[in-house]
Prior knowledge:
The chain is of the alpha+beta class. The protein has helices spanning 13-21, 24-34, 40-47, 51-63, 85-88, 91-104, and strands at 67-71, 79-83, 116-117, 122-123, 129-130, 136-137. It is globular and about 50 Å long.
Amino acid sequence: MVKRTSLKAADCPVARALDAIGDWWSLLIIRDALDGMRRFGEFQKSLGVAKGILSGRLHNLVDVGVLELVPASDGSAYQEYRLTERGRGLFHVVVGLRQWGETHLFSPEEAHSELVDIAKEEPVEKLELRSGTGRLLGWEDTIVRKVHRKV
């Protein structure tokens, strides 16, 4: 088996993020947690993933601070997984993947799920990247600049 290369110390934020949560099972667990799932059995039923794989991904998500283990909300002896602030910060990432998938991976007549605004009961608009002045930005309007360590 090939040993996975760690990107924890990479100077690229994308690489570090992928090191922490970049496999599909982890992102699907985060998606389900954002949808309100909290129990191991709920994740397993939703994903159909082997228990060992799910257990490993959940432990990693706890280790990187995306999920935390808390006492079960029903007062039982079980524990539940709850999104941390860091985990809730992945909402826009999951929405971006969802919207990209809706746009590029489904035919117009194909059924799929959609994200809906609870208050208005309307589909959520596409994510947009805007400058500090509100100007709409595309990939060609941005560059990556290294930030030097502050002393």
